[in-house]
Specification:
With 209 residues, the protein is an alpha/beta fold. It has a single domain, classed as 3-Layer(aba) Sandwich (Rossmann fold), CATH 3.40.50.300. Helices cover 54% and strands 13% of the residues. It is built from eight helices and five strands, in the order βαβααβααβααβα. A five-stranded parallel sheet has the order 2-3-1-4-5, with helices on both faces. The longest helix is centred in the middle third of the chain and has 26 residues. It is globular and about 45 Å long. The two termini are 29 Å apart. The chain binds thymidine-5'-diphosphate.
């Protein structure tokens, strides 16, 4: 979706399960708040009714790919209208833990056409200013999941994650930044905070009139 004129920034974190998105989002949000930004965070699937149903399906048994896709899109429509667009309009930095690139990568890994999925989403969902792809091979990401004591869920099987990673690697967007998730939390955070600062500065254009 073409963005309405607003002063906010949309920053999206993507990558397969276990790459460290949540840790990184905490570190980046904290630093940006110290620097004086208003930061709003969200995650998908959301904690709304569609999102809760999707999370339950990860352990109770997955839906058919098409039904699952529709539920992720319904969940996102509510997120965009209820949280993302209003926060951007206020001028906040909106940070998302997963967005429609995950739908392309994961539902694409189940055999749906990931390019069509991107197109469908971009009809209603604002494109990010910055898309952080934390990249890690699935062997390593599954190892991290095991280390934190979580049993891998149905979304997290090795072969599926390999396919999802291949789709992430095929997505080309001018705002995409790939970062090696084996780097330290601090190194990754600093690279992201620097880029957000650059984007925020570029937003301050000439004063009208
Ligand atoms: P995840 O971020 O792992 O949630 P949690 O922090 O609760 O473990 O997301 C749950 C799963 O949902 C994850 O394996 C990826 C999957 N997913 C999709 O398949 N499609 C999507 O569009 C999104 C947003 C997530």
């Amino acid at each position: 979706m073409k963005r309405p004129p607003d002063s906010g920034l949309l920053v999206v974190f993507e990558g397969i399960d276990g790459v460290g998105k949540s840790t990184q989002i905490r570190a980046v949000s904290e630093r940006l708040r110290e620097l004086g930004y208003e930061v709003v965070t969200g995650r998908e699937p959301t904690d709304g009714p569609h999102g809760r149903r999707l999370r339950a399906s990860a352990t109770e048994g997955r839906l058919e790919p098409e039904a699952e896709l529709e539920l992720f899109i319904a969940d996102r429509r509510e997120h965009v209208a209820g949280m993302i667009l209003p926060s951007l309009a206020r001028g906040a930095v909106v940070i998302l833990d997963r967005y429609y690139f995950s739908t392309a990568a994961y539902q694409g890994a189940r055999g749906l056409d990931w390019r069509v999925i991107l197109t469908r989403n971009e009809e209603f969902a604002p494109e990010p200013d910055l898309l952080i792809w934390l990249d890690l091979p699935p062997e390593k990401s599954l190892e991290r999941i095991r280390q934190r004591g979580d049993p891998a869920n149905q979304f997290e099987r090795m072969h599926q994650l390999e396919l999802s990673r291949q789709i992430f690697s095929a997505i080309a967007r001018p705002y995409l930044m790939r970062l090696d998730a084996t780097e330290s939390v601090g190194t990754i955070r600093d690279a992201i905070v620097a880029e957000v600062g650059r984007l925020a500065a570029a937003r301050v254009g000439p004063i009208p009139g």
